[in-house]
Description:
The protein is an alpha/beta fold. It folds into three domains: 2-121, Rossmann fold; 230-347, NAD(P)-binding Rossmann-like Domain (Rossmann fold), CATH 3.40.50; 353-445, Regulator of K+ conductance, C-terminal domain (Alpha-Beta Plaits), CATH 3.30.70.1450. The chain contains 14 helices and 22 strands. A hairpin with a 5-residue loop joins strand 9 (178-184) and strand 10. The protein is globular.
Amino acid sequence: MKIIIVGAGEVGTELAKRLTQEKHDVIVLEKNIKKASNIMNTLDVMVIGESGHRVSALEQAGIKSADVLIAATDTDEINIMSCMIAKKLSSIKTVARVRNPEYGSKGLLFSNEQLGIDIMINSEEVMASEITKLIKTPAVNEIAYFANGKIELLSFSVKEDSELIGKQINTLRKSHDFLIIAIVRVTGEVVIPHGKDEILPNDSIYVVGKTGFMSELSWLVRTKNKRAKSVMILGGGKHGLMLGKMLEKNKNGMSLKLVEKSEQRCQELSEALCKTLILNGDARDLTFLKEQNMEHIDILVSLTGSDEINILTAALAKELGVKKTIIEISRPDYEFATRALKIDSFISPRHLVASQLAKIFRKRNVVSETILREGKAEVLELMVPAKSVVTNKNLINLKLPKGIIIGGIVRRGRVIIPKGEDKILPGDRVIVFTDSELVPEVELLFSDEKIGQA
């Protein structure tokens, strides 16, 4: 595909990186010289130093022969304008990153069609939704749902004093309701486990099973999934406000606090949030944090807009007794720091947006795609066509490439956590965990194309 990306910020750069790895023809429009130079020097893409809402720039990018335009700048209006102009110039498919929820509301004066937008993504709303899921399930560090909520993927960390250390994978599964599909080492290495692989200190273990299987997993996690009673949000920007609104809708007796440095912003937050205590303070101030009795906070979410501050405050909060920490980070090179400092969960906006958009560039039978761990691993949900080479064979005989594992099968509404003797049948919905580099091979295996066919 020929794809035009407007904006070379964090989201645009991540999308360009992924799409070039998948051999798409990518053209990036970026007026900022520094951003344009950075992406030009790191990726094999064509860069045009213009804004995407200029007709001449879109024509120079080859809009009439392009397949998709993704407007991913930090300005909603530029993204919307880019899509509107693109639609006037071509029959291209358009995607816009839109941060203001008013643009996507049902009472909007103009419809998405009138704005020239085929797909609208609100990254703040997507991120708040992901954090809310983690707050509702405090015992795990990551969670994702598949097959219309029938299957869930959970991850948890192995503590240094855990009884699991040194145990082999084949000794851990006591139930047919879940399957260990991956281990992520503290170094960031992703291991698709075999029976004799051992658990090491600070590993992250990924487990897939029927939704609600957490009770079956409690003996393995060695912790109870207690409901969070108190949550503190650091940072009252768009992300913090969106999360506050979402948590207020599902409060269920939960105590909510939001810390913001700006007095003026605190006033605005007080008017927007009616069930949240707004505190005017500096999240970096250790004395201020101590005064908040952090040992009584179940979950701290740091969304200050600065990766460094988010990491620092989460690390301090852990030392002060907070039970679980969740942070937003944008820079991929900081993700290692979160593991080294034992921060429980991190959310990456660029990965969330990439996951939302990935289905556009996949084969028709790909239902959903979830990106994990710095983009090194992915989970694909696929519908299996009748002529797929994987059908009607025992899984043990498929001889799948190393790095690909079948995590779940849904057949006529029934969830199957697969064993070696199970088969994949035409019409099944299959959950596949894979190394990111093997995604094209997974698509081919679960398509109706012949292996080796172009």
